[in-house]
Specification:
The chain has 27 helices and 16 strands. A six-stranded parallel beta sheet has the order 3-2-6-7-1-8, with helices on both faces. It is 52% helix and 12% strand. The chain is an alpha/beta fold.
Length: 618
Amino acid sequence: MLQLTQEQLKVINAFDGKYVVLAGAGSGKTKVLVERTAKLILEGKAKDEEIMLVTYTNKAADEIRMRLAQKLGRDHKVVVTTFHAYCFKIIRELYPDNRKKKLKVLDDDSKRALIKDLIEKLDLKLEAGEASRIISAIKNKVNLKLNDLRLTLKYIRLYDEYTKYCNEHDYLDYDEMMVKYFELLNQDESFLLMEADSFKYVMVDECQDINQLQMDVLDMITCVHQNIMLVGDIDQAIYRWRGSDSDLIKSFINRPNVKTLTLSINFRSDGYIVTGAEDLITHNQNRIYKQMNPYKPKCAPIYRKIHSDKNVEARYIAREIKFLHGIGIPYREIFALVRLKRNTTALEFEFKQQGIPYIVDGLTVSDRKEISLPLRYLDFLLNPNDDRAFLSVLNEPARGIGNAKLNEIIAISVKNNCSYYEAAKQLEDKHIKAFIELTEELITLMNSVEPSIFIDMLIDKIEYKKYISRLSKHLIRLSRFNTLKESLLSFLNGDNTKYRDFLNMYYLSNEKDTTNEDAVRIMTIHQSKGLEAEAVFVIGCNKESMPGLINDPERIEEERNLFYVACTRAKRYLYISVPLKDMDGKTPLKQSPFVNELLERQMIEEKEEKALYEGLPF
């Protein structure tokens, strides 16, 4: 195990006061955060529960929690959490008892689906994904700079309708969790002082990704002890499009009595990769300077390959992956990174042709049908009058209820101002009557029998196994369901009143699916953030997509950050792939300017090395 460096020890021993730690890619910041937290406890600076450590994914929080327990040699009560998980915990505790069971987490996919429905209902002709981003930006105090008045009025109308719908149905999306917690702090001084006094030390990982609302919350909960450490890397700021603002860190650094520390050694990547990535990122003007240095020697040069078109590119990458696997690199240690999801088509086709196992990242765990179906049924049975929950299970598995009957249900609902479920009860249709009877029976069972018995009966009565058997890889799917079932029953521990609590916990941690399956992972660069692999292919390195057809210097710098993130995922081998034509074999493409920035020094070194061997007899 590597000894701690002087830089790392400085961070670990920085206790009282305000700090910003500029932690470059692969610099061991998780280890440093764990060591610092353990030292605060072991030296009596704070009790477990007086330390808050905020990170950006539940997976990262779980890892830190586990590593801290190993370091302390015991279980602990340190508050290792995400912003959203902590805010939801507090909101739920303070929510009226008569509405607690209805309080429902709305994950990003459900939020987008609801917005899409509202757009259609209001006939606004907006794109659901962009509208979802705008609603988030409004809640997070982001300056949107919308110049079109008519468009602005559309978004305001949609925002009002969305907010009203969520309030009426006790829906809580991720942004609203932060908003409500901020309002509690802002409106109740005694609550603010209680929260701020409870945390002697606050640490925030990935601080380059915070937004204005989160910064305001941090200022409030550290107003008593004023011990805060922000850890991150502005060179990896890639989420401005969803409201993050790395300028907040620059402003924080300029506050009185704030000290700046640096972690500048990359322990992850080959020396060629570190120096190349450093050459790349120094082209950004709006950054906080730091010089990253490699811990590992220069062994494997960065490979740049130019291809005649994207189909040839895909064939080359497939062959190279087979070679890497042949020399002992597991498929799961190989990433294929793209700028946009739509750029995976040729690659997937070629992997299938050559028999390379692969996974396209981007699915959340609950996107999988074998997981989503039982979760949707639990959600519906807890509140059959939730129209969205009703629609999600009405004809899945298929039970002969078509669009004509659904339209009748909606018409009755509108006429009588009642839920879809109540409207369905009024229809004389054998399939709908069977569904209503099944629902009533399942609700009774859910509230009267042991959870382990109920889950088995639910699976049996909705013919779940028959449904799964018709899908591909059904044995793997059943295995995934059994894992879900074990998690559910462990959480409930025999208590049939905690189904909603389980669903909220599940959706709150509903991050991108991960797997130990030995398969190449195809994903966007954004999805690769925080991950690492032995070999990384950055695919489609063209000017048309990196940085794209944009002129805004700020956006170009963020695109360069994104390319930097892609390159620094690699531990040993980094491949830069440049097709000169699109998949049609006709549309010309240009090499991204970022490629030459990455390879400036390396290309010189390669020429020098070649010169050394000229004239030698081998």
